[in-house]
From TrEMBL:
Domain of life: Bacteria
Record-linked InterPro entries: GrpB/CoaE (IPR007344), NT_sf (IPR043519)
Name listed for the protein in its UniProt record: GrpB family protein
Species, as recorded: Megasphaera stantonii
Classification via PANTHER family: GRPB DOMAIN PROTEIN (AFU_ORTHOLOGUE AFUA_1G01530), GRPB FAMILY PROTEIN
Length: 177
């Protein structure tokens, strides 16, 4: 069965779910992990979102993460390697009814780290844009309930513009790292 795409109102429990999972991930990555962040829509209070917790660990050595594949699989993650993005390690949990996604970057990959944090922080600081984004996602989830490609294609232009705005805004904001 295909992934069921649903968008729901913000749930304050998402923060606790992130914290619990982040602790487990940090334990697996050990001293290689230099930071870990809650990213994506569930990290923005008030934003409608798919109820999937996005987590971004930052590590010293991305290649060393591959040695932890078995440990991640042991707690229910599917380990997908780069999965279309060079120098990233991507993991997901929950099968078609996904609950968590992990995007691991090496600390020297500043562009990808900053991009994710800039979008999160921009949405946190710009409630009207977050509301518009949530409304778009809700509409697309109704339109494409089992078509993740259609859902993603439908928000692609908005997300690209959002990233551009967020990165410009972030140049004038303090660093999250």
């Amino acid at each position: 069965m295909a992934q069921h795409i649903i968008v729901v109102d913000y749930d304050p429990c998402w923060e606790q779910k992130y914290l619990a999972e982040a602790e487990t991930i940090r334990a697996i990555l050990g001293e290689n992990c230099t930071a870990i962040f809650h990213i994506g829509s569930t990290a923005v209070k008030g934003l409608k979102a798919k109820p999937i917790i996005d987590i971004m660990p930052v590590v010293r050595d991305i290649a060393a993460v591959d040695e932890k594949q078995g440990a991640f699989e042991g707690i229910g993650y599917e380990y997908l390697g780069e999965f279309g993005m060079a120098r990233r390690r991507y993991l997901r949990k929950g099968g078609d009814e996904r609950t968590h996604q992990v995007h691991i970057f090496q600390e020297t990959d500043r562009a990808n780290i900053e991009r994710h944090l800039a979008v999160r922080d921009f949405l946190r600081a710009h409630g009207e844009i977050a509301r518009q984004y949530g409304a778009l996602k809700e509409t697309l989830a109704r339109q494409y309930p089992y078509d993740i490609e259609g859902y993603c294609d439908g928000k692609e232009a908005f997300v690209k513009d959002l990233e551009r705005q967020a990165l410009r805004w972030k140049q004038n904001a303090p660093s999250s790292i």
